[in-house]
Amino acid sequence: MNDKDKIIRRAFWSTSLTYRQWKRRVKNAKSDSFYWVDACSHLPFSFLAEELGINFIKRWPDIRQHITSPAAQTNKASIDARWAVALTTDSQFPIDRRVSEMPTKRRQVHGMIVRKPSITSYEISKLTGRDYSAVHRDVGKLVSDKLIEVRTSTNQNNVTRRPLFSTLSVNTKIYDACHQGAA
């Protein structure tokens, strides 16, 4: 019995389910199925993320609705935080299907805005090495989805800056509280 089979056996101790059987069933199962709900209730996040990758990340917002057992609530909260960190680096970021379904590059742009409130599109394009127009297009989509907002500010030298802020992140609230007197 290999390590993966041992992990599956610990989670599904009442059945003779092997790792290969579990992986095949989870891959084809709906989000509310026994395999997804029990896997997320009992398996470690690192195992789920490694084995299921982006499939798990995209499905988590749907799966979590079906985890209702009081015993599984701690694991659910832990997965919520790790899911948020995996997507945005903010453990308090709310679970939002729009974030899990966006393309990788756009999710990277969103994550940078969550991580560093007041960053600009230009700074993001320099940090990521992406073309400014591609970053600008992603920012436009994030604004239209109401995931971020653009605030225009002008300094004493009459230079206009267009910083970006996440509408859902606690980091934006912290930034606003810290910079309230500076405005």
Describe the model:
The protein is mostly helical and 183 residues long. The chain has two domains: 3-90, no CATH class; 102-178, Arc Repressor Mutant, subunit A, CATH 1.10.10.10. It is built from ten helices and four strands; from the N terminus they run H-H-H-H-H-H-H-H-H-E-E-E-E-H. It is elongated. The mean pLDDT is 84.
For the residues shown, what is the average pLDDT? 84
The helix/strand class is mainly alpha
Number of domains: 2
State the strand order across the main sheet.
Answer: 1-4
Shape: elongated
Assign a percent range to the helix content: 55-70%
| H/E element sequence | HHHHHHHHHEEEEH
Which key features would you list for this structure?
single chain; mainly alpha; two-stranded antiparallel ribbon; Arc Repressor Mutant, subunit A; 183 residues
